[in-house]
Amino acid sequence: MWWMAMALGAVVGATLALTGAGGGILAVPLLVFSLHLGLAESAPIGLLAVGLAAGLGAALGLREGRVRYRAAMVIGGAGMLLAPLGVWLAQRVPNGPLTLVFSLVLAWSAWGMFQRARTTGGRAAVRAEAPPCVRNPCTGRFIWTRPCAMALASTGMASGMLSGLLGVGGGFVIVPALTRYSDLAADSIVSTSLAVIALVSISGVASATLHGSMPWGIAAPFAVGAMAALLAGRRLAGRFSGPTLQKTFAALSAMVALMLLVRGVAALMV
Fold this sequence. Notes:
This protein is an all-alpha fold. 79% of the residues lie in helices and 0% in strands. The chain has helices at 2-19, 23-34, 39-63, 69-90, 95-120, 146-166, 171-181, 186-210, 216-240, 243-269.
């Protein structure tokens, strides 16, 4: 099973490199349908793989000066507080309702990505007003205000809860939020999102390990595959990224969401 786990991890890492947001939310469905694991079993595996791959991508982005590390610490710090609560809930919610929740979150993520790809056409949208988080034109750093801190902290709390509960990285929450609440460029948003995912995953993985719900025999090769594919995917990101890729990923996510919805309903009827 280790080679299949590594191959599935590679799919997650490649998606994470290209979108900065989609790899985490695909990890759990891949494990559920391919390795026939339950959602509660798959969640910590996906979180470990996504966290390690995101940490690697964030380190490379930090070296290249694309990570807004203060913003990442604010979002990630808030997320780390909520991730253990999500892990605790995941161990107590039955598989059927948890699967239904995941399918709805995945469908929402797919719709959001499709809308962004359709309305912006791959270009930065024209803003009617300044976002709460803007950079100093001289230093390139955020001008910290209360609205900015509140927007980023609330984003971190949402991503942390979902990361612990469903095993997703939270990038599908973080990337749209940074796009809406900040004036960062697209490459900086992706790199900062990866840094946040890495921070939040530390908390979630540690909590899952303490609860004894981390199957390392599958988790380790899955994580190795994800990190290897992320490194390879970074070389292709500039060539394949854009609205077409986002729409394709959104369609794939919608299809997986429908499959999970059917599976969750069937589990409730048993």
